[in-house]
Amino acid sequence: MPEVPWVEKYRPRRLRDVINQTKALEQVKAWIEAWLSGNPPKKKALILAGPPGSGKTTTVYAIAREYGFEIIELNASDDRTYEKVERYVQAAYTLDILGKRRKLIFLDEADNMEPSGAREIAKLIDRARNPIVMGANRYWEVPREVRNKAQIVQYKRLTQRDIIKGLVRILHAEGKTVPKDILYEIAKRANGDMRAAINDLQTVVSGGAGDAVEVLAYRDTEKSVFQALAQLFATDNAKKARMAVLGVDMFPHELLEWIDENLPYVYYRPGDIAKAYEALSRADIYLSRAQRTGNYGLWKYATDLMTAGVAVAGVKKKGFVRIYPPKTIKLLTESKAERSLRDSILKKIMKEMHMAKPEALETLNVLRAIFEYNPDMAAHFVVYLDLDLKEVEFITGDAERARTIWGKSMNIEKKLKERSRLEEHVRAAVEERREEKAVEEESEESEEEEVSEEELQRAEEEERVDKPKKKGKQATLFDFLGKS
Ligand SMILES: Nc1ncnc2c1ncn2[C@@H]1O[C@H](COP(=O)(O)OP(=O)(O)OP(=O)(O)O)[C@@H](O)[C@H]1O
């Protein structure tokens, strides 16, 4: 028998178990108490607005339980809903008098109402004798005529901490545990949606830890590391082994951890295991050298050793090998937003560096290392690839480091701008000078012509004078010589 969905099994029954919506709950309580005071609130409808899985429906059910209402739940996007609402509105008072439980009408998805339905619902709110509560993710998409007649109660997006609190509560109740990093990963990717988080938790707990990682971490990655490792461990061909890990979106040292974890299950002869580990430890040496020196070309040797080096180490077990994540796993997960960031970075790399996608992926890995260890060089890449801050954050995975690199890149950009301004300036000056020179030369040329005419005359005269001068000079010398 399939298990009851935990989202229903663990839906808080009481208001005080609803996590981190205190302000909203107070408003809802005050409003419902006004109904019970015999002096109904001015606005006879309530809109609970907020992100999915933040506790709106839960509130309605808990309030009904605590204040003794029966809930009539209807979907606002359903065309026939308003007819039903009308029936209940009519009947409600009578039922009340007959001592039956009071009814609370809950209309979910009020932001998906048809305009015609909205007009009817607005009319019904006017005539309502019992509380009408609506749920909506996008308040502004609730038709205006309905919105105007309702009081709004805003639900917050739950924080990661709230989500973890909710998940831990369920784990306690189930007597189950999951690794902390997986729990955090679930909370992170839920993005404030407790329902999504609880569903993920249930999948993970009922599936076992191996599946957990597969379900959570690798459903979006380029090529799953499970697939890659299965291929790697199935071959004793060096080239195939190298190929197996291409396209795995992972740092070499992370890949190394995965291989490290799974090696003992692949070889059964101790000598072979030892040989494989030797290849791994040499890979590790290359990796730390790469990190120390910034020579990331060494990554290639490291990757060769951990793939080809391991693949040829000996005789492997036949058949299916179950791949386990390393104990110290750093989950490489991606949300939709992260994925789109990564794609946009890849596109920039492909465009600027003229690369195909697999190469761009490798480059992204290299960039990650550079961004981790060499902020100055990273800043140049930011400018070169025209990355934005979000993309830099994605590459670094660390907001603070991203800001440092971003700051540096702004300086470079400023300098580049200054330089191009300067260049422009110098170029303009040179141009100006050249023009001036051209004008000068032109006038010089004409002056020269004039001068040369004069000079010509003078020269001619001089020539006449010169000769005797020269002669005179020579004569003097001769005279002198003669004299001496
Ligand atoms: N604030 C909360 N505290 C505890 N549990 C919560 C909270 N919010 C949601 N949950 C849990 O998440 C699941 C979904 O919650 P709920 O149905 O109240 O979401 P919702 O806000 O109505 O979402 P939607 O807008 O999608 O209808 C329930 O199982 C509930 O137990």
From TrEMBL:
Protein name in UniProt: Replication factor C large subunit
A GO BP entry: DNA replication
Primary role: Part of the RFC clamp loader complex which loads the PCNA sliding clamp onto DNA.
Molecular function per GO: ATP binding; ATP hydrolysis activity; DNA clamp loader activity
Summary of subunit composition and partner proteins: Heteromultimer composed of small subunits (RfcS) and large subunits (RfcL).
Domain of life: Archaea
Organism: Thermococcus celer Vu 13 = JCM 8558
Compositionally biased region (Acidic residues): 438-454
Keywords on record: ATP-binding, DNA replication, Nucleotide-binding
Renumbered residue ranges of the record's region Disordered: 428-471
Biased composition (Basic and acidic residues): 428-437, 455-466
One matching Pfam family: AAA
Binding site for ATP: G50, P51, P52, G53, S54, G55, K56, T57
Residue ranges occupied by any AAA+ ATPase domain in the UniProt entry: 42-159
